């Protein structure tokens, strides 16, 4: 089970692209409403979630995904249920994935990136306390997966598929959506 957390003001592409690719790969990926069942994104696109934060079963989680966007990232970080869930997944060795501002604000703010390679939205690297910042669209360091933003959403989604289903499945999904097939 993968839980993608949505708080008001999330970046739509960064949340929906990974969910789409994970579901294409056969992964049970759920949109979790932190600020309600219908969550408006940063560009005014309202998303009906699959369940609320209080309905999520964190013992069943294989991965937690934190989209960026403002003020969505700040809204996620301000909610203790979110930071508790992130800490639980991290401490239990489950995958923790974050894109755009989320690696800096949430993972960096929680001290989870110390000594790890990571990326985030350009200009927010200072928030990734103790991380080894890389200028890449997506970085995988053990069970921490980070990405730069909307432009890296397909790479991010493929990295999530690769982590859970293997590299071959990720390549097949990438080819199906014509990602990095034509140069």
Brief descriptors of the model:
single chain; 183 residues; alpha/beta; 7-stranded mixed beta sheet; two-stranded antiparallel ribbon; 6 helices; 11 strands
Compose a concise summary of this entry:
With 183 residues, this protein is an alpha/beta fold. 34% of the residues lie in helices and 21% in strands. It has 6 helices and 11 strands.
Description:
This protein is an alpha/beta fold. It has six helices and eleven strands. It has helices spanning 12-24, 72-78, 80-91, 102-108, 153-165, 167-176; strands at residues 2-6, 29-33, 38-40, 46-48, 51-52, 63-66, 95-99, 117-118, 132-133, 138-141, 144-147. Strands 5-2-1-6-7-11-10 form a seven-stranded mixed sheet, sandwiched between helices. Helix 1 links the parallel strand 1 (2-6) and strand 2. Helix 1 packs parallel to helix 5 (153-165) and helix 5 runs antiparallel to helix 6. It starts with a strand and ends in a 7-residue tail after the last helix. The relative contact order is 0.17.
């Amino acid at each position: 089970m993968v839980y993608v957390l949505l708080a008001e003001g999330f970046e739509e592409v960064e949340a929906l692209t990974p969910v789409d690719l994970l579901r294409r790969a056969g992964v049970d990926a759920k949109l979790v409403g932190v600020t309600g069942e219908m969550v408006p994104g940063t560009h005014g696109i309202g998303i009906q979630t699959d369940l609320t934060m209080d309905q999520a079963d964190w013992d069943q989680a294989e991965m937690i995904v934190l989209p960026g966007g403002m003020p969505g990232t700040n809204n996620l970080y301000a909610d203790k249920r979110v930071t508790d869930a992130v800490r639980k997944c991290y401490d239990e060795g489950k995958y923790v994935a974050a894109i755009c501002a989320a690696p800096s604000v949430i993972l960096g703010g929680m001290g989870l990136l110390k000594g790890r390679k990571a990326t985030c939205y350009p200009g927010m690297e200072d928030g990734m306390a103790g991380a080894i910042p890389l200028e890449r669209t997506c970085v995988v360091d053990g069970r921490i997966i980070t990405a730069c933003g909307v432009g890296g959403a397909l790479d991010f989604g493929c990295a999530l598929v690769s982590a859970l289903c293997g590299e071959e499945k990720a390549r097949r999904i990438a080819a199906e959506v014509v990602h990095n097939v034509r140069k």
